[in-house]
Amino acid sequence: MRKILGISALLLVVCVVTAALSNSFLSAYNLENLIRRTALFGIISIGVAFVIVTGGIDLSVGSVVCLVGCGVPWLLTTHGWPVPLALMMAVVASVGIGLFHGLLITRLRLPPFVVTLCGLLLYRGITRGFTRDQTVGFGAEFKGLRLLSTGEIPIPFVSGFSIPAPWIFLLGVAIASAVFLNRTVYGRHLLALGSNEQAARFSGINTGRMTMLAYVISSSLAGLGGLLFVLDVNSAQPVDFGNFYELYAIAAAVLGGCSLRGGEGTIVGVIVGAALMQVLRNMITLVTTHNNIEFAIIGAVILSGVVADELVRRRLRRA
Amino acid sequence: MTSPLLQAIGLTKSYPGVHALKGVGLTLQRGEVLAVIGENGAGKSTLMKILAGVQTPDTGSIEVDGRLVELPSVVEAQGMGIALIHQELNLADNLDVAANIFLGRERVRNGLIDTRRHLAEAKVHLDSIGLDVDPATPVGLLSLGQQQLVEIAKALSVDARVLIFDEPTSSLSSGEAANLFRVIRELRSRGVGIVYISHRLGEVKELADRVVVLRDGENAGELQRSEIEHGVMVRMMVGRDLSQFYAHVPQSPGPVRLEVEGLRTAAHPEHAVSFRVHAGEIVGVAGLVGAGRTEMLEALFGVTPAVGGSVRVGGVASRPASPEEAIAAGLALVPEDRKRQGVILQMAVRENVSLAALRRDSRRGFVDRAREEGLAAAMISKLGIKTPSDRQVVQFLSGGNQQKVVLGKWLALKPQVLLLDEPTRGIDVGAKHEIYRLMEELAKEGVAILFASSELEEILGLADRVLVMHEGRITGELSREAMTEEAVLHLATDTVEAG
């Protein structure tokens, strides 16, 4: 709870500062865009948070975004697949990837870092292979499908501002995830195994199955994210689509209070974390003249957040 | 009269909300084994940490050879010749013995570590305490007892004159413990002062020249060699009389609950074990460390599935391949390593107690919070778990209360057979007594209890029967009438067959 308050306060500060420095920050267009990006990144961040809660890590998120984000338009336009079939394929690929990671991690006991690092290389390489590194996109077609991401839901009695469609997806994913994690037996089992895998196993929890589930959730939400991302931007280049997204997702989860040691994390925190990441990026674009220091600023802010958190924690422990 | 080797006067130390020490004093002479005993929370660990320079006292003074000293850090304390042998050993498993002994103060030649000199010097130190291992052996390959001796050799290599032992035998077999005692006596005869902390009053009686008793952060008394006696020590520690420490009332055994036939564990596949436990019976499993007790219990519980044999629980055949299956069959295990296998330290009492029963008590996959709360409340009152609320994080409970949480988790499932592995390790006298009482109560309710313990006293006091193991086999079984320390040790060391 304290962590969420802290990160929310930081988000507010960054918003206020950006609004003060830039006139366009509070414009409807910018805010809508910001909310859309937050929703998209929020979805993949929640996925990765499930893995982090078990004490694992998923570095393949960005490449899964790339695989699905490039694969779906490729199937639809280059190969003319019907929409349901292409979407089905995306689901099979994302779930399959999660199962594949989970099996390697639980059965062969390989470290999650290594397994998903290889995944990061694999899925991007595969995507660049089958697309022959060519940009894929929808052009002027599939307007209906693209509404899933580009659509806007008007707010009654408010004109000039509407809710971007991905926000609805985020809301659905977030509510389902929060209920799952906090109210169901399986969510409790997941938290227990993240805190102490041995004790969880000794208590009769099928820790292998729960770990697999976490990786499946992560890659599935990465797949959903990839689809929504490409529907939003219309075209994707396999060489860099989704690049570094795993790091944005992990950073959002950690900022939002997930401990990389496992067993700790809240969905609300992850969303606030994702929002903070996006507002920071937005601030850099609006306020500074050079985008190329984006990473440096994001790195510095995250680092100071984590350091502040640790210092506060120590102060509390001593008090 | 010469001044004492080590003297502490009026030490106090407070942590937020706790007065750990309220003016404790202690005197140690050369060539003396001084035992420090007391319940958990009595202040033993704090006192030892202060003497070893791990922590600094709020007030009070420490003198070495009659000179006032400050011990702001471990390095300073070691410089004064004071070394602490930790309860959990501080050795690097992957480094060899010699490298561990010289860790942090490596001998260097031409800028490189002088390995040859390390090995030679290490050998001298090892020989001096009679540890016959090659100094080039990786520490991870040594037994716990041997590792402890390496720690001692390490302390001696810095010319330690005061050695502080914190529960040194808690994970040693009786053979290893006997060897440790031999080394301690040898050190004593060389004039080294030994401070010895232990919960095991038997070994205190055997080893100590003098006993200092702490209670609630204060000196509760001192006993000279001739006065050291079990009942007296217990009385001084708890401040009251525990006249019936073991009040075992044998139940008339009911039907067979656990039937093990030719069970072979992955650790000792060449030996098959067979035995039965009846409802209401308490059966002890004795043996030295490495005898295969934990392996047997873990095979029964499906942690490391057995490789052969049959297990019947309540007449139903079931050889569990996972704890999940074992629990479904009606088994429960209070594991050896409470903090790593028993409780989830970061979770609340309520969540720990409900963990195993959570799925049974759920409604369509959702946690039934009312039932969970009810269960936690029931277990807290039934087991007498001392906690401010069921929301308290288990980490902040004492060892004894943590163990009760583990018990509560299993009692929620009403198991037919309760397996316990070292159920009272590292918990204080009062809490031990309560665990014994609970085991008795469960037996009375018809649970079949099988418990492994390294504390012979506990087995003799509590068990209806004892199975004695040696290197993966059951070398014998003794009824309550035939159970004596000698008979058990005989079987545990398998001297019948060997001699």
Would you identify the regions of chain A where 5 or more consecutive residues have pLDDT less than 50?
none
Strand content of chain B: 15-25%
- The portion of residues assigned to helices of chain A is over 70%
Number of continuous helical runs of chain B: 18
Most extensive chain-chain interface: A-B, 23 and 30 residues
Strand order of the largest sheet of chain B: 6-9-10-3-11-12
Cα-atom radius of gyration of chain A? 20 Å
Tally of strands of chain A: 4
Distance between the termini of chain A: 19 Å
* Sheet with most strands of chain A: 2 strands, antiparallel
Walk me through this protein's architecture.
The complex is a heterodimer of chains A (319) and B (499). With 319 residues, chain A is mostly helical. Chain A has helices at 2-21, 28-53, 61-78, 83-106, 112-130, 143-150, 166-183, 185-195, 197-202, 207-233, 245-255, 267-287, 294-318, and strands at residues 136-137, 152-154, 162-164, 235-236. In chain A, helix 2 (28-53) runs antiparallel to helix 10 (207-233) and helix 4 runs antiparallel to helix 5 (112-130). In chain B, the strands form five sheets. Chain B has a six-stranded mixed sheet, with helices on both faces. Chain B is α/β, with parallel strands linked by helices and 499 residues long. In chain B, helix 13 packs across helix 14. The mean pLDDT of chain B is 88. In chain B, strand 16 (308-313) and strand 17 (316-317) form a beta hairpin. Chain A binds chain B through residues 183-186, 188-189, 191-192, 195-196, 198-206, 263-264, 318-319, and chain B through 16, 301, 303, 322-324, 326-328, 333, 335, 337, 340-347, 351, 355-356, 358-359, 362, 365-367, 409.
